[in-house]
Amino acid sequence: MLGFLGRKMDNLLEGEHQRFIHDFGSLSPDAQCLYVRFANRKGRVFSRESLRYEEIESVPKALEELGGKEFVRAPRNEDWPDLLALHKRPDLVTLVREKTGQPVPSNVKKRDLVALIQARLSFEDCFDETLRRQFIVQDHLETLDYLFFLYYGKLSSGLTALALRDLGLIQRNPFQAGFQSRFESREAARAAFSLLTVSAQLDAPDPGVVSRLAGTVEEWPKLDDPESATLYHRAVYRLGRELERCGRPGEALRVYRFSDEFPATERTARLLVQGGKREEAEAELTRMIHDPSCDAELLFAEDFYERKFRKKKVGRLTSLLREARVFTIDETNRDRPEGGVISLLARKGEEAFHTENLVWNQLFGLLFWDLLFESGAPIHNEFERKPWGLDSGKFFEANRDLIEGRLASLRDPEGSLERIRSTWERHEGTANALVPWFPGTLEIVCLLVSKAPPEGLAMILRLMAENHRAHRSGFPDLMVHGPEGLRFLEIKSEGDRISRTQLTRLEQLKRGGFRVEVGAVRWAVDPEQEYVVVDIETTGSKAAWNRVTEIGAVKLRGDEILGEWTSLVNPGRRIPKAIIALTGITDEMVADAPKFAEIADDFREFVGEAVFAAHRATFDYGFLRAEFERIGELFHCPTLCTVVTSRRVFPGLKSYGLANLCRKFGIPLDSHHRALCDARATAEILILINRKRLEMSGEAAS
User: Fold this and answer.
1) CB atoms < 10 A from the CB of 174, how many?
2) Cα(530)–Cα(559) distance, integer angstroms
3) How many C-beta atoms surround the C-beta of residue 75 within 10 A?
4) Are 220 and 198 in contact (CB under 8 A)?
5) For residue 229, is it left (φ>0), alpha (ψ between -120 and 50) or beta?
6) Which of 42, 309, 364, 429 has the most Cβ atoms closer than 10 angstroms to its Cβ?
7) Separation between Cα atoms, residue 281 and residue 363, nearest integer Å
8) Would you put residue 477 in left (φ > 0), alpha (ψ -120 to 50) or beta?
9) Across-strand partners of 640?
10) What's the alpha-carbon Rg for the chain, to the nearest Å?
């Protein structure tokens, strides 16, 4: 990697980077190997005792050599938090007790313990010279991070990709053997690296980091280079959002004003209105309307201006949903509303395809394949699957004439189809980030090219070429072809909203001459439909690392209860005290209960072909799917959420929590937060919901 950077990107390297590459090349193989090990490990401080590698003949000798070239060093005061983090919590507790003589609360978290130590002790108190010798610190980290950035195009602190390549577990770039320098100037490269570093600090920031960054935003590099400019506006927006989350809207507004691009401009206008600065907000919105930075900004400004300054009560997004064409389909399609609409349209003689973003990105990649991936394309290392510059406009500017020529060729659909089919045949299966080679999708792409208005097609693809990140998603769910031609259909079921990105794409398609609709799915209530109403209890709120402790299920058809199923489940871990207090389920109760794998088949059989219903269905269904995945099985069925549905059929209630609905409708809830009790109560609520839905559908029909 270092040799590659020295050959291909020497113009982007400063003296410190060139010295690093030179000095690394002068190390012995053992010292090089040890430093590579450091570069691949988490953290920057290591215990000497942990440095045991069979391939290195003498670790102490390699460390001495690395120290001589300043690749590693002894710990200093600034390494104190990292040194403490290496120690286990009991060791830190002992340290506090021995050094201060004060007790440590049993429930204190490790991070709080580290903060307490730093507040009460000094670096020397914790680590005397003898103890410091037991540790080693990797040096030149910023230099190494910058070199990784030049190679990968993103912040990366490891050599995993290179190792996997050498093991034959990852393919090299299949497009070309030669690669370009990633940036035109050292200044642009340093600016991009600096701004990516800022964004990385905002991934999981604490208030101190947010405050520090807010105080330095004036110093951030702001260049004309498209790549670093894109990163600048993105970092400004992210910092502003973090300040808002911290309850600091005034500071957020100050930060947003460093950017004149959407979505920072949207937040500026909203905060001005919230702060009572209506004249400034009106001026800002007027500017956006007359000189928008993008279509999304224009749509926001027009809509927000109408609602805040012309007293329009309903926004464009809400209006679209209210005006949507209604599709009534069977509830067995609840897990696939688009599929239900496709079947309904097929019965009416129209062919529909669930395309969403797929067909557009495939067409983009196939039409411009040679510019994106072949000789001279902006690919910068052997692992990249997507050209650099697609999101900043560099790709478009570098290939403007060729792109415009290709777009003009769309006026000859047959010629364009020949090019697209030929590209597919020559490159099918080639790994890339734009064209998935799914069977059958080529014909959908060809249908789009042959039936779409050529100028409209060119307009959308031009937008994608100018800024792929901003225009790669948000396309309508379905592409429909019938007697009246081609159209696009965005499907929304109960509880769904139209996002601003989707609205922007709908408006762009309309402007391009495409027929576009929004379809609202309404579920047909069949009195003979079976439901299984489920409730679960768990060890915590996140399915990724918590487990189910109890399942209760009630099967019903109409008003009739067909059966019940329940079981405690051994989660294989301790149940937190807070959860025990909530549910009453203890470790002793589940100790002899079956594991989930032992009851999975029985539960699946009980569910059968029924619609899965639950109060907050995403929680219960998500947990059960996770449990099935852990035993190597899929669990998939149509779902109904009684929270979402009760909001629609019983509007105006103060709360739609299970306990509150039970009080409202006089439903017993004797053992709340026990699975079968809650499932029985939810089943009664579902019976009331379905009665109301049948009543509403009868009124609509009359």
Assistant:
1) 13
2) 10
3) 19
4) yes
5) alpha
6) 364
7) 40
8) alpha
9) 613
10) 30
As a whole number, the mean pLDDT across the chain is 90
Q: Among 374, 370, 435, which Cα is nearest to 406's?
A: 370
HSE (side-chain half, CA atoms, 13 Å) at 26: 12
Residue 613, token pair as written in the block:
């219903």
Q: Which two tokens stand for residue 283?
A: 């001026």
Query: Which amino acid is it at 234?
Result: R
Other C-beta atoms lying within 10 Å of the C-beta of residue 402: 12
Distance, in Å, from the CA atom of 580 to the CA atom of 588, rounded to the nearest integer, reads 11
Strand partners, 136: 46
Q: Which residue intervals of 275-409 are DSSP H helices?
A: 278-290, 295-309, 316-322, 337-347, 358-367, 369-373, 394-398, 400-408
User: What secondary structure letter does DSSP report for 170?
Assistant: S
Distance of CA 594 to the CA centre of its chain: 35
Q: Which of 17, 87, 468, 673 is catalytic?
A: 673
Distance CA 427, CA 434 (A): 12
**In the predicted structure, residue 168 carries a pLDDT above the cut 60:** no
Q: Which two tokens stand for residue 131?
A: 């103890």
Q: Please, are residues 147 and 2 in contact by the beta-carbon 8 Å criterion?
A: yes
CA distance 518 to 334: 18
Name 595's Cβ contacts closer than 8 Å, sequence gap at least 6: 569, 570, 572
> What is the 3 state secondary structure string of 454-491?
HHHHHHHHHHHHHCHHHHCCCCCCEEEEECCEEEEEEE
Q: Are 181 and 151 in contact (CB under 8 A)?
A: no
pLDDT digits (tens, 9 = 90+) for 196-237: 999 999 988 888 899 999 999 999 999 888 888 999 999 999
Q: What is the pLDDT of residues 411-441, one digit of tens each?
A: 999 999 999 999 999 999 988 889 999 999 9
Question: pTM for the complete prediction?
Answer: 0.76
380 is catalytic: no
Find the range with the poorest average confidence among 145-149, 351-355, 382-386, 612-616. Answer: 382-386
- pLDDT tens digit string along 61-116? 999 999 998 899 999 888 888 888 888 888 888 888 888 887 877 777 888 888 88
- Look-up: residue for tokens 């692992």? 383
- At residue 549 the predicted structure's pLDDT band, cuts being 50, 70 and 90, is very high
The contacts of residue 577 (CB under 8 Å, 6+ apart) are none
